[in-house]
Design a protein that fits this description.
This protein is of the alpha/beta class. Helices cover about 25% and strands about 20% of the residues. The strands form five sheets. It has a six-stranded mixed beta sheet with strand order 2-3-8-4-9-14, sandwiched between helices. The protein has a four-stranded antiparallel beta sheet with strand order 6-7-16-15. The longest helix has 15 residues.
Length: about 280
């Protein structure tokens, strides 16, 4: 198994401001423009697992958050004692590392017409950005930025096998790594990963148009179903993942940011038992 430790943190010297925005065009308050600018800048990094551009991205956006790193290269931070894990992954499925150009259509961002990148990489830059925003707001929880999810969840598998003490008090694991705008995943590859009771409590807590979805494929929280009672994957607003037509809805992700920051974790329901097996047919 490949490990993805970086050769020591280095300050990233690139300027943050790379894209100019007009508040009216994106329906985003002027006070939030720096956060949107950061999101768009994040999206300019093509990040195959273990690539130099993934390393530059981590040094620029994650190292300043004073995260810890394990022996595999997963970055994490604990704030407070809330029994919830938020997760995302730092790699993308780009064919080549480096930088890219993004373009806009209404409230959506995608690969610019002049750029030949094979995908946008909102899977999972959207999840990374949301977690960065939550950490900056000091929202309690355990935050894990997994490595090498696209290659087979290797970073989260390492934690599940070698770092179980890190997650021993966690009751809820939420991956911010799902396409669309309405899925709370209850099954991953046909295996139940969270209860209906938990899913409904999360839906109610977010106050958005989410619904239960049993058609999930694998993401990092699937590595924890035998260790954590309630594991799910939440839609973060992208479509067309892994393709040149991938798009991210900016209006949606900013609304989700507000909902996540306001979520009352004490009202989430724990019903499923860790390791409990239940399957359904995949559709």
């Amino acid at each position: 198994m490949t490990q993805f430790l970086l050769p020591g943190p280095k300050p990233e010297s690139e300027p943050l401001a790379e894209v100019g925005l007009e508040p009216k065009k994106f329906k985003i308050r002027a006070s939030l423009l720096p956060e949107c600018e950061q999101l768009l800048t994040m999206l300019t990094y093509r990040r195959p697992a273990g690539s130099k551009s993934e390393g530059k991205f981590i040094r620029r956006f994650l190292i300043p958050l004073k995260l810890k790193v394990d022996q595999y290269g997963n970055y994490y931070k604990r704030i407070g004692t809330d029994p919830i894990m938020w997760s995302c992954h730092t790699d993308t499925v780009h064919n080549e590392p480096g930088k890219m150009v993004v373009g806009f259509a209404g409230d959506e961002v995608g690969v610019a017409d002049k750029d030949k990148s094979n995908c946008l990489g909102a899977d999972d830059t959207a999840g990374i950005w949301l977690m960065v925003q939550m950490i900056k707001a000091n929202k309690p929880g355990l935050y894990i930025f997994h490595r090498d999810e696209e290659g087979g969840r290797h970073g989260s598998k390492y934690i599940a096998k070698m770092m179980q003490g890190q997650i021993k008090d966690i009751k809820f694991a939420v991956a911010l790594d799902r396409k669309g705008q309405d899925s709370v995943i209850t099954h991953q590859m046909g295996q139940r990963c969270c209860s209906t009771e938990f899913a409904q409590s999360l839906i109610e807590g977010l106050g958005m148009a989410y619904k239960e979805d049993d058609t999930g494929s694998y993401t990092d929280t699937a590595s924890y179903v035998d260790l954590i009672p309630e594991c799910t994957n939440l839609s973060v607003g992208y479509t067309g993942a892994h393709t040149h037509m991938e798009r991210l809805n900016l209006d949606f992700i900013f609304k989700l940011r507000v909902a996540l920051l306001a979520l009352d974790v004490t009202k989430l329901v724990e019903k499923r038992k860790a390791g409990e097996k239940e399957h359904t047919s995949c559709s």
